[in-house]
Amino acid sequence: MNTTLHPQNSLRHVLFGSLIGTTIEFFDFYIYANAAVLVFPQLFFPGTDSTISVLQSLATFSIAFFARPLGSAIFGHYGDKVGRKTTLVVALLTMGISTVCIGFLPSYANIGITAPILLMLCRFGQGVGLGGEWGGAVLLAIENAPPHKRAWYGMFPQLGAPIGLVLSGGTFLLLTSYLNAQDFLEYGWRIPFIASSLLVLVGFYIRLKITETVAFENAKQEQEEVKVPFITLLKSYRKELFFGTFTAVTTFVVFYLMTVFMLNWNTKELHFSNKEALLMQLFSVLFFAGFIPVSALIADKIGRRKMLLYASIAIALFGLFFSLFLNSGSTILVTFFLCLGMSLMGFTYGPIGTFLSELFPTTVRYSGASLTFNLAGIIGAAFAPMIAIWIATNYGLAFVGYYLSVAAVISVISLLVISKKEHQF
């Protein structure tokens, strides 16, 4: 099958188009994560017990993960039927509008219980948008890639996660540095949500300039289209869906423990300031970003499955030493711990998009890759911060590490069981 670039598409447009969308989507997603720890407990879930307020806030954080499979089903259907380009544009707008609306929400003090309800609705919209965005962005890259460089091309949209995290964390760091606590709570936290509209406009413009992928056009010309991709997945690709989902679980668990859980732990339990905690997190994200291309290069040489297998085994071992660094309370040791965890995250995150996409043929690839990734988000991330906080409070940090190790072992088993067959592009 022809894998050369479509005449209207340049390599720069393809890779930048896949990267810019995921950067915007993850920026929007992560500013909510930061606000869910630093702001929303006070403004939307006020109470006498700060821990309960945080858990209630993080519960709204989890809503998006349940919405993401719905986004996968809806956008995946149209992505496999209508095309990658149009679907990606609509997914981006869905995410962007939901995020901007959060920036204008009144607080609990203004409208009572309606405030957290509206917050949950907006969070749901974020989840639907991201559920449709990720799979399309990955396919935009790898369906234009030479067979021996699929992981390399597929890592460009993956880079959107650390870039989005740096932008979101950096924005909150600047706001907390230049605004006093009162001003930050009153209006400062709203700035990144509203300002994301500018990023969405840029992404919208870039996406409109990109034409359809060659793999999709070829499948359409050869009349390989299926009537309802989601039903075809459930009928013919149950094994790929099941084990693909559990392959990606570790990716989510390690990431949200290193970000949301650690941000809460560092500020609430280790009593680092918001600024210190954000600086430590932003520094560790550089390791996340750095090891994504490294893992992609390795994956193209030894195989995506083998790369993920080695990374999952390393994460399982990492979990056994979870409390060794954090119980010290040392800034240096905690930062080292974060950097190590984020490095491992880079190793598993770089090839995961390509690996999941290769499990499915072109006609159901958008739906299949998106659904496996986002179902893994429910299992591995939706409640991971809350579970970790509960485990740490009741059993200690060591058991949080064991929780991570168990997730990694599940991924290892899934990788050993899942089919090695790669579908034609």
Explained architecture:
It is a single chain. Helix 3 crosses helix 6 and helix 13 (238-269) runs parallel beside helix 18 (362-382). The protein has helices at residues 11-38, 40-43, 50-81, 84-102, 108-111, 114-142, 150-158, 160-178, 181-188, 190-208, 214-221, 229-236, 238-269, 274-302, 304-319, 322-326, 331-357, 362-382, 384-394, 397-417. The protein is globular and about 65 Å long. It is mostly helical and 425 residues long. It has a single domain (11-417), classed as MFS general substrate transporter like domains (Growth Hormone, Chain: A).
Task: Give a nutshell description of this structure.
The chain is an all-alpha fold and 425 residues long. The protein is 82% helix and 0% strand.
